[in-house]
Amino acid sequence: MGMPDVLKHWTRAEVLALPDDGRRYELVDGELLVSPAPPYVHQRAVGEFYRRLHDYVDRHQLGEALFSPSDLDLRAEQLVQPDLFVVAPPAGRAAEWGEVGIPLLVVEVLSPSTARYDRITKRRRYQRSGIPTYWVVDLDARLVEIWSPDAVAPTIADVSLEWRPKPAVAALVMDLEACFRTIWNP
Fold first, then answer.
1. Which CATH architecture best describes the domain 39-184?
2. What pLDDT band is residue 110 in, cutting at 50, 70 and 90?
3. What is the pLDDT of residues 92-101, one digit of tens each?
4. What is the per-residue DSSP string for 36-80?
5. Which of 16, 87, 133, 173 pairs as cysteine with 91 (C-beta 3.0–4.6 A)?
6. Which uninterrupted H or E stretch holds 173?
7. Residue ranges per structural domain of the chain
8. Using CA atoms, how far apart are residues 114 and 141, in angstroms rounded to an integer?
């Protein structure tokens, strides 16, 4: 399980200087979050959601769909590594992570070691940073929690998931039942 280091207030520079040892280091409001490599099914889920998002974002020229490792700053000296995220142009042409800005969408796939961070710690930071849409993918429950900056509770999607980042663009509609079947039954 990932453990926070609550004894000190970490800086972005200190976290970036940590060794590349296979762990995921993130910084949220001065708290160091350390997570081990994710389970296999987690990565299958990241791949499946990435494939669907990438195709949609590319087809509608909305920016770029990316996945971690990353060192997103969120314009607040944070260091987060969401499983998936979508950045709008011109962020897609940025040279450094600090230039990317606020993603249009962030997706976290729950793992036993990250569920609390994803649902509470990181969600609150994503909301304060103004990320328009945040999805928490719960593989065990086969559902997606949808958060917006002002939400006090998520909208739950368990059959179909819709995302419309621009009113003039047709929505991405994902058949979640088919998506979860693909993840669990390759």
1. Alpha-Beta Complex (3.90)
2. very high
3. 567 787 788 8
4. -PPPHHHHHHHHHHHHHHHHHHHHTT--EEEESS--B-TTTT-BB
5. 87
6. strand 172-175
7. 39-184
8. 16
